Amino acid sequence: MTRITAVVPAAGYSSRMGLFKPLLPLADGLVLEKAIRTFTAGGINDILVVTGHKAELVAPVARRLGAAVVYNAEYDRGMYASVQAAARALPQHTEAFFFLPADMPMVAPATIQKLLAVFAEKAPDVAYPATEGRRGHPPLISARLRPAILKGEKEGGLKALLLEHARSVSEVPVDDPGILLDLDTEDAYRELVVPALADYPTAAMCAAIWQKYHVPDGIIRHMQQVARAACLLAEHVNSSGLRIHTGLLQAACLLHDIARGKQKHAEIGRQIVTDLGYPAVGEVIGCHMDLPAAYTEKITEHSLLYLADKLTAGERLVSLAERLAAGERRFQDKPEALRMLRLRLQQAQKISRRVAAVTKRGVEEILCREAGIFE
C-alpha cells in the first residue's frame, strides 16, 4: 500500500501577521488544528508538523491530534529549512508527501483525495491542485525528489526546485479556492474568520483610531504593552486546549484606554468602540476596570485583558505583588481607593491561578521566559 505523509510546517515567526498564526482560532478550532484535520479527513494518517519559533506551544497542539513533530533548529533561515527538516524526518518507505504550510488551513479534504487518486494512477514527481488556471497548495511530492531537496537550498525555494527537478507533473483540477488562500496578514485572517468569530479592528486599524481620538503616546505605549502580555498569555492557553479569540483580545488591549483621563473611562471606551462597529471588543473594554465575577471563573478575552492591565504599570510590566505594594504606598491615606485596589488585584490573582492551572506555568514565568518583559 502506498505510504503518503502530510507535512505541515509551523515554524515561522508570523512577522507579517503580528499575531502567532498556528494558535489563532478559526470557527471550529485553531489554525494548526484545521490544517491537520484537512489531512485526517482526506484519509492521511501520517502527519508531520515542523516546529521552530514557539515550538513548545505548537507541539502540544499537533500531538493532541495524533501528528508527529519534528523541530527545525534553523527556522530563522525561512521556509526551506522546514522543507529540509521534514525531508530528513520522513517515515521509512514514504513514497510521497504533501506540503501544506499551517497558514493555508482552508484546503478541502476532497482536494487531498483527488491528489491521492492521481498519484496512485500516474505516480508523477509532483501533483499540484489547480483552480482557475492557478496552481496551489498542497503539492504532492514524490520521495524521488528527496535527495534534491536535501542537497541544498535553491534560490526561489521549494517552488523553484520542483520546477527544475520534477520530470513528470500532474495538474489536478479542483473546485477549491482554499488551495490559494493563505493567512499571511491580519487583514486576510480577519476577512476569513468574520462573521464566524466576532468582528474586530486589526492592529493597523487600531492605530488609525488612536489618531482619530488623539490618544497620547504614553497611553498608546501602555496599551501596546498590555496587548503584548495578554496575547502571550492567550497563546499559552490556546496551546493548552482553549480557543481565545486573539485578534479580538489584541484589539481590546490596544483600545482599552482610549478614553483614559475621563471619568468612567472604561464605559466611555466601550461606547466609542461599540459605536465604531465592534460591540464584542467594546464589551471586553468595558470590563477592564471592574470585571464581573463570572469572568474570574473562566479564562476569556475579558479576564486576560483585565489581568494584563493589572500587570502593567504605565509602560512597564510588574508583578501583582509589586503593583499592590505601590498601591498601598499611594493610597495609604485613601482607604476606599486602597480597598478597591486590593479587590481588583485579588481578582487578577484568581485569574492568574486559573491561567497557571491550564498552562502548568505561572503567569510571570510565561511573560519573563517568552519575552523578558519583566524588569
Describe what you observe in this structure:
This protein has 375 residues and is of the alpha/beta class. The chain folds into 2 domains: 4-180, Alpha-Beta Complex (Spore Coat Polysaccharide Biosynthesis Protein SpsA, Chain A); 198-371, Hypothetical protein af1432 (Orthogonal Bundle), CATH 1.10.3210. The chain has helices spanning 31-41, 55-64, 79-89, 109-122, 146-151, 157-165, 186-193, 203-212, 217-239, 246-255, 265-275, 279-286, 301-310, 320-330, 335-359, 363-371; strands at 4-10, 25-26, 29-30, 46-51, 68-71, 96-99, 126-131, 134-135, 140-142, 169-173, 312-313, 316-317. Strands 1, 4, 5, 6, 7, 8, 9 and 10 form an 8-stranded mixed beta sheet that branches. Strand 11 (312-313) and strand 12 (316-317) form a beta hairpin. Helix 8 packs parallel to helix 10 (246-255), helix 11 (265-275) runs antiparallel to helix 12 (279-286) and helix 13 (301-310) crosses helix 15 (335-359). The longest helix has 25 residues, at 335-359. The radius of gyration is 23 Å and the shape is elongated.
